[in-house]
Fold:
Amino acid sequence: MLVVFPIFQSARYSLYRWDGLGPITRFIGLENYKEIFQDPIFWKSLKNNLIVVFFSLATQMPPALFLAIILTGRIRGKSFLRTVYFAPQIVSTVAASYLFYYVYEPTFGLLNNLLKGIGLDSLTRGWLGDPSLALYAVMVVISWKYIGFYMVLFMAAIEGIPNELFEAARIDGCSSFQVIRKITLPLLSGTIKTACILSIVGSIKYFDLIWVMTSGGPAHSTELIATYMYKKTFLSWEMGYGAALAFVLFAIAILLSVGFSRLTNKKAEGR
Structure:
């Protein structure tokens, strides 16, 4: 009920022109949706969202899986390393946003000063002020923050695999690579699929870090549907339009997650 009711309320509000203050009386049907699909900023934000989805899958899943495999093996100091790699997940999003905002700061930021220190002055940039770079600069922070989360998810799944399977493989003379390819990865397929769906949904609805670091700028280069929805709802007071954006965001998240699930199921059935 706590999930379904807001969805239906959002769908209802999206059919009205409402400023959030007076009575909800001006029914306009699907006009808000028509305006959304004619809105160039919406299409820009959707494109950015899809870039974030693919970048997150590409830069979070492989490192997280690699670290999980390494840190469930027989290495020294793995408890310490687990803590180090998971630490970014503990840092609050706002704190991480401000930290990297000053890392990227063009005048006294750590990144530009580091580049100057090693003689690469030509590579210094206004990382968050350049429309061609800002989204990728922010996505680096997103990946830094969430790799540890997926690492722990994969580690839990690996530690749930019976040791007898690994011991039998070693007795049969399998190399470490063969054990990973023939035992670990196939048995992790369900967890990998779940992690990818979580990443897709999380990337589609992402808001807080982007909002603190760039507020969707410059020139909407980091605008996501969630940040645009916030602006239309709480800055422009277009509640109906914001509700329509929220419903579209929900629909996109469902379509992408269901589509990914069906695609992976078909591939699994085809093997």
Remarks:
- The chain has a mean pLDDT of 92.
- The CA atoms of residues 71 and 78 lie 6 Å apart.
- Residues 40-71 form the longest helix (32 residues).
- The chain has one domain: 4-269.
